[in-house]
Write a structure and sequence with these properties.
Layout lengths: L2 E7 L2 E6 L4 E6 L3 E8 L1 E6 L2 E5 L4 E4 L4 E7 L6 E8 L1 H10 L13 E2 L4 H8 L13 H18 L4 H4 L10 H8 L6 H7 L4 H12 L3 H18 L5 H4 L8 H12 L10
Antiparallel strand pairs: 1-2, 2-9, 3-8, 4-7, 4-9, 5-6, 5-8, 7-10
Helix pairs in contact: 2-3, 6-7, 8-10
Pfam families: ExsA_N (PF22200), HTH_18 (PF12833)
Protein name: Helix-turn-helix domain-containing protein
Keywords: DNA-binding, Transcription, Transcription regulation
Length: 269
């Protein structure tokens, strides 16, 4: 059946996946609050990998690159309830609830494990997905404001994230690309996240790295894969998605072309 998304409101959906796995490099333009109903999720953010299962809750910050891999588990499909915390809704909320915020380092996503209040809030949405009509905005607004209030109660620093509406500023290309080269994103998205137009991004990249973004990304991904296979003794089938390849056969071809032997051969001939 593959992937399905059942929206009862533009900001509320039930996500379901029945296939062997679903992998995507994602960049959300708004914060997402996610409660996992079943299945397993692996999230790669920077140099760390996180795993989540049934009942876990997490908040994806906007404008952050992550790799998401979803798996069915224990005979059940991967399912999650997803709530969009849009800029407009948060602006309206914080206009009524003024707070003093402080600048933050680029935020990592926040996990709340199986917090009972968040679970209760998000689980209460499930009956609405059986409706044959859209959820009225008045009810959706109440549910979203409830979730925001719970987040503020259990995480006293959350305002500094949710009430910060700044767009990405110009940052170091070296630092950003070294941390995010494994993500398959359009070049204009890389430019946006580093505070540059596409033209300026390509120009600055060539000046900084003395090559094109495409060639540099391929080299970095193969270097990481080579390290994981040779030094960490991992299988190519475990590695290729994490380092930014979409297809195992394409990864094998590129690896052999770069190193002179197949990734299944643990040592060079």
């Amino acid at each position: 059946m593959g992937y399905q998304a059942n929206y009862i409101h533009p900001d509320l959906k039930l996500s379901r996946f029945d296939g062997p796995f679903y992998k995507a490099d994602v960049l959300f333009e708004q914060h997402l609050l996610v409660w996992f109903i079943s299945g397993e999720t692996r999230i790669i953010h920077g140099d760390r990998t996180y795993r989540f299962g049934t009942g876990d809750t997490l908040l994806f910050p906007r404008n952050q690159l992550v790799t998401v891999i979803n798996y069915p588990k224990d005979g059940l499909p991967h399912q999650s309830v997803v709530m969009h915390l849009t800029k407009q809704r948060l602006t309206d909320f914080y206009t009524k609830n003024r707070v003093a915020i402080r600048p933050m380092q680029p935020p990592r996503f926040r996990t709340f494990d199986q917090h009972p209040l968040l679970k209760s809030c998000l689980a209460s949405l499930i009956p609405y997905f059986d409706l044959n009509a859209p959820l009225p905005d008045a009810i959706a607004s109440l549910k979203i404001e409830e979730a925001i209030a719970i987040l503020r109660m259990i995480d006293l620093t959350i305002d500094h994230l949710l009430a910060n509406f700044d767009e990405p500023g110009k940052i170091s290309l070296v630092d950003f690309m070294e941390q995010n080269f494994m993500f398959n994103m359009p070049m204009d998205k890389f430019g946006y996240l580093t505070g540059r137009s596409l033209t300026t991004f390509k120009r600055d990249f060539k000046k900084t790295f003395l090559t094109t973004p495409q060639k540099w990304l391929m080299e970095k991904r193969l270097e990481l894969a080579h390290y994981q296979i040779r030094e960490k003794k991992r299988k190519p089938s475990e590695v290729y998605l994490e380092v930014g390849f979409e297809n195992l056969s394409h990864f094998g071809y590129a690896f052999r072309k770069r190193y002179g032997y197949a990734p299944t051969e643990r040592m060079a001939p």
